[in-house]
Records
---
Amino acid sequence: MFPFAAMLALAAGLIGCATARRSEPIVGKVVAGDPSLAAGRQLFMQQCHACHPGGEAGLGPALNNKPLPPCLIEFQVRHGLGAMPALKTDRLSEADLDEVVKYLVALRRG
Amino acid sequence: MFYRPNVQLTAMALASVIFLTGCYSVRPSSGAGQATASPRRIHAADIALPPGFRIEAIATGLTFPTGVTFDGSGTPVIVESGYSYGEVFVEPRLIAVSGGTPRVIARGTGGPWTGVSFYENNFYVAAGDVQTGGKILRIAPDGTIATLVDRLPSRGDHHTNGPVIGPDGWLYFSQGTATNSGVVGEDNFRFGWMKRFPEFHDIPGQDITLAGVNFTTDDPRGGEKVTTGAFLPFGTASRAGQVIEGSTRCAGSVLRVRLTGGEPELIAWGLRNPFGLAFAENGRLFVTENGYDDRGSRPLWGTPDFLWEIEPGAWYGFPDFVGGEAVTADKFRPPGKPQPQFVLAQHPQEPPKPRAIFPVHSSADGFDFSRNEAFGHKGQAFVALFGDETPATGKTLAPVGCSVVRVDLATGVVEDFVTNRGKVAGPASRIGGGGIERPVAARFSPDGRALYIVDFGVMLHHGQGAKPQQGTGVLWRVTREGPP
């Protein structure tokens, strides 16, 4: 159990310190503006931006400062949790989810 | 494919996600207005813009400014609303801002004045007039005021908005709904207007048939519980199959009228609060819409704001659709509250799809299109996001909006353009510093080289409702000073 608890503690520490702000006025040219991320960015705008504006907190919590690996991001998107609704494949195909996750990971590093 | 499910991973995922995101339901709201009042500071360096742009304050000390236009000489002219949520009534004014010295062109009545346009030596103002009904006013340069349209249904939550002059030479304006989602409730009593006009309610743009869905609530005026249906006065129940007569002067609509006045024509309806209107360079009309709130007898949750391209004759979904999606979708059910049901027995059409989606509760308001490559982003929409008004409208985990964003119409991508610096987003009164508060309109100068931003000023929100702060409004100007 200890490694898992340590991981959570580390994550909490990271979240407490990190800002989620990644938009162009704050960081200059956004990494997520890379053309290879364009599809994921458009899907993010349709499915995620409303509650997590630019990956920052809004109606829901911030995404950009969460050290979640891609598999856990996919898990939460597919299954939902708490107030967050699940996005099934009729709303977001497997290929589209991969694009969104790729975009989210790039945005987090931006 | 990243996802490879197994039991251990699932358990870890659940634990991690719960830990990392917290539980929405038990966390208090932390919105833009949940701050304490203090004197407003103006410090442009506290505002972040993309590289190559600068911002400066052109006028300060304004009271509830809501719109800006430019007279024949290019001088910026603003309207001060004369009314704000929180039931604060002051004098609506039209003010020229030249060389930092304000000059009052006209004083009027009937706030809120929500926007202004200048065309062929006259100013045109949308006057919400929560007391006697909405109007479109023409104001001559000497301050003489004439009424072009009156008797608009503007006594409720949302008002008469706009106006803009179309490429056809007609004046286009919009009318917001009386309620959050079609049903008059206790929230409207708290807003204030139901005390003045207990019989007021939403009016459809054409005859509609109700499903007979009713809502039983306390009567804030005292007495027994009451039952209320959609498109009916508070305390009046609906029945299945009941027909509500439509009107041109309807709620949630876009209308037009000749510059000489006369009867308005209905262009589109079924919007909730269409606040901002602007014509793109190709002559197409676009409108911003403020989405539903988690309040009142028929609350909805997670409903964004939208940018719409207006199709003449179309119905946009109010009160049964959200950006083209049915309110019966599980994702629109507020935590711990009932699933919204359709209140209309039939829908006029399948609603269109929006061109862009803005954050929930961001209050997407006045906007304009960039027309000059010298400024950049030609063809993109620059939209003022007033920011959330929680907890009156629902709950957010952080301030939302309080920025100006740009929208790429080709992709629907929304990107911050003007926002305050800091570890978190929000108005200066909430996060500190001397930056922006509540952008309510954005408009380019006639030459397209400068973007003017109307900042309504400090708007606080506590349990008792809105607390707007007079004399805190600002007119900002953004110009390009170098390459990006």
Note: The mean pLDDT of chain A is 85.
---
Amino acid sequence: MLDVLVVGAGPAGLAAATALRARERSVIVVDREVEPGGVPRHCDHWGFGWLDLRRVLSGPRYARRHVELARDAGVELRTETTVLGWRAGTALALTSPAGPSTLSARAILLATGCRERPRSARLVAGDRPAGVFTTGSLQQLVHLEHQRPGTRAVVIGAEHVSFSAIQTLRDAGARVVAIVTPHGAHQTYAPFRWWTTRGRLPLLVGHDIVGIYGDRRVSSVTLRSRTGTVSELACDTVVFTGDWIPDHELARLGGLELDRGTRGPAVDSALRTSRPGVFAAGNVLHGAEMADVAALEGRAAAAAIDRFLDDGHWPARRLAISVHPPLSWIVPNQLAIDDAPAPPRERFVFRVATFLRDVHVAVAQGGTVLSETRFARLVPNRWYHLSSAFLARVDPVGGDLAVRTVGE
Amino acid sequence: MTFDVVVIGAGVVGAAIARALSEYRLAIAIVDAADDVGTGTSKASTAILHTGFDATPGTLESRLLRRGYPLLRAYARSVGIPVEDTGALLVAWTEEQLASLPALARKAADNGVTDLQAIAVPELYALEPELGPGALGALRIPGESIICPYTTPLAFATEAVVNGATLRLATEVRAVERGGSVHQLATTRGELAARFVVNAAGLGADVVDAMFGHRRFTVRPRRGELIVYDKLARSLVRHVLLPVPTKTTKGVLVTPTVFGNVLLGPTAEDIDDRDDRATTEAGIRSLLDKGHHILPRLLDEEITATYAGLRAATEHSDYQIHCDAEQRYACVGSIRSTGLSASMGIAEHVVELLALAGLALERRADRVAIEMPYIGQLAARPHEDAERIARVPDYGRIVCHCERVSLGELRDALVAPIPARSLDGLRRRTRCLQGRCQGFYCLGRIATLLAGGTERTVDEILGGEAR
């Protein structure tokens, strides 16, 4: 019987499969796209690979490198293969140009990634003209199909991916007329911001997009400031960036417990979901982390799966780890009380919803503070880490864990 | 050439009339100002196949609904239009609404719908466990169903076309020169000669009626905003959840769709602009408030679309269907939200009126049957069909992942008797780009495919310059 079936041939799935082959496990990776590699295939800029491959590559080259590593390790890659749903236990129903089929494995790894919320989910009013994109659809159009998206673009969002979209627009010859964020500042790193915008930054802070208008093609957007002033801006292209949601369809169809904060499957520190034999890694667990981080999570999942294949152990009881606003989510978000290894990279990853200065993030169990970490500055849409050293202080017969900010 | 009948308007009503006429030896043309079939009022309906239980008894609308409902059900089965028998629950939330339920049941009986059941609170929550708190009772209308609003007009028009009708899209009728035996229609794409003319112009029906010298009604569009929820919401609701109707509208409802989504809406707002299909912040907000009340957990689900439709309301509460024998002209106006359900009843009625007005009807023996691509969720789709994929592997190549649309289905839509010419046309025929990602994964590939299939550039397709 097949040891592991990996769903998704992005960085997390491929890195996990490669690591499992190194432990002499049989692995099949299925992916619904024509080409394996996941989202980095169309992120045509530098900055990929330093954390996991110890070299800096462009997105497409990084994707190709992971595919090569997996193939060299003997991983079977099946592209154009869509998972339709679950059979009993750890078997999945698939379809592909070879026809519908069922594939069983001793363990399953969900590495289905995440996507950006499109215009519809953000409830922007107005007409429905062409010219409205997400970073994903924009980059595929420009980098995979070699098309030009438009000439005057408004970018919604000012986080890392927003500047990736700006770079793509520039490559395609479009002018960015505004970058719109509800926050008081952009949320990326200054060098990346400078590189993609060459210092020219038409940033509109404290604004929300409220309407899109146009007959067949976008002709304008309306924006509202924090004081309620509504203004109109002429453009022919709108790109919605960020606002990530895990691609959790398969997790939900399988009845996996979801985390309220991330909307991805809830996992413990060994990346085990609530369904026995089913693990999850990469951006299906949370909004978009860097591809490198997803790949490292994939490797951590491989180690946990390898252990599971040896001992068949699945935790009976888990503690929940919940966050309180202004924290948005934390991953992992559960702890198995009888078996809680350190999480990937010995870190818990979290995000905040607002800008914060000089703040302490405390992990508590009941009345007991297990750890407190000071942050000089927390920025929304960026990832931050808590050391997992506090795991040694968790009381196995105590209650759930809560993470909150203290003071500011 | 001179057409025996020109039908103006390729919405669900015009297409149904053309289909009915195509059963006879007639030269038929269908013209529409838009670039596709069913793009006006038809595409933005709530997609419910109504029994007509709450129509006003004795009206033409009531009669044609009662006739159209079984006709459309049978037709849908024969050509592959997705239909699901969900039944509806008319839910009372106030004492006043509860008190009006018996009268509604009597009205239904007057409309010939006799199988309504009164549902008490415990049973109601057993039928709909996710229903919001505070419901006081309900009427169950077993016959109310849901139907595909896109396949229906396309099927009618396709059947007419494969049986010889001429379809002229992107062709707006600008003027009519009335003649003693032949009318000349001046369009944006040349002249059309017609012995008989049928006006099924929907939002433009009063304008066409004026071209024949009549002032029988004025269209005052009623805008309805709708929210579509992701397929993962489908398990939250089993029936069409109807509010108790008021004088102006049937109110806001929550209904599953045949695609497996959940629909919340519509609002009802009388507006002046016949092209204003913009959604509004206030409209969406009011729908969310009402949705939260009806089905609280719905609001946790992802929204895949918000849109507005325009219903062709007039000052009349009943359908305005007239046929003038002297003018050889039939007017089919004031067809509001029940047009989809009544379409085949309307068509049958109009054909009878045209016959009375002197149109010679000789039945054809050589009819070509059609089968529409199935895009519902109840039966197997092509990507689940082993035999079909074995013959054509492209049915196993999924391009739009959210809606699981295969390359084979997209290719079929580009070479259908009425092919897709735009992204919207492809959306309506296959469901592509209609899912939760709205093209995050597949827009580039689909736009390129459409460009290849229509010999246009991707720029033109994304510029919306559909011809």
Note: The first helix of chain A runs from residue 11 to 22.
